[in-house]
């Protein structure tokens, strides 16, 4: 039976895969992240692929490796994780008065009976914030919650009180589009039972 490896150190992705009943091991990628595109969908697919490939290349035998990456896109800017608190404030300001998009790319690397297959996809969710005052932005950044999150916020955390609208998959914003992942696993001809029972 296949081993499922999550090539991510994100605690959110670990929680979401667990929520969908998946039994897996975490093996964080150490790949250098190289971006060659300015399109957010291409960027998240490139990065998820690099993370997945790095872990997959170190495995043998039957395995499925999952790589993922999340970015926020607003007005032609791609926002990853903030470098520092000042950067977090500037990112949150960019998200005011406008809707923005959250992209998560997912790459699946499968080896079964020595045959290797790969699938990469992305999911896009639109998010609208209520206006945040300078004071609210400052207080939120001081909470440190934004520091390891793309776009400098966590929809699932303290930032929830500023979320006005969302169109698309909520779980995609948190870092893993779980229903789409399930569909892709089935489309690749894998048995979901293998993902749940080991
Ligand atoms: C927008 C948003 C992002 N995030 C998180 C999901 C991701 O963990 C993080 C984006 O960073 P990523 O670079 O996608 O992932 P990571 O560095 O956390 O983990 P790894 O590279 O090992 O896979 O932002 C939230 O938790 N909530 C949100 O609302």
From TrEMBL:
The active site is at 69 (proton acceptor). Its EC number is 3.6.1.9. It holds the Pfam family Maf. CDD domains: Maf. It is an enzyme of class 3 (hydrolase). Its main location: cytoplasm. It catalyses: UTP + H2O = UMP + diphosphate + H(+); dTTP + H2O = dTMP + diphosphate + H(+). InterPro entries: ITPase-like_fam, Maf-like. The record marks 12, 70, 156 as: Important for substrate specificity. Keywords: Cytoplasm, Hydrolase, Nucleotide metabolism. It is found in: Cytoplasm. Its cofactor is a divalent metal cation. Nucleoside triphosphate pyrophosphatase that hydrolyzes dTTP and UTP. May have a dual role in cell division arrest and in preventing the incorporation of modified nucleotides into cellular nucleic acids. Belongs to the Maf family. YhdE subfamily. This is dTTP/UTP pyrophosphatase.
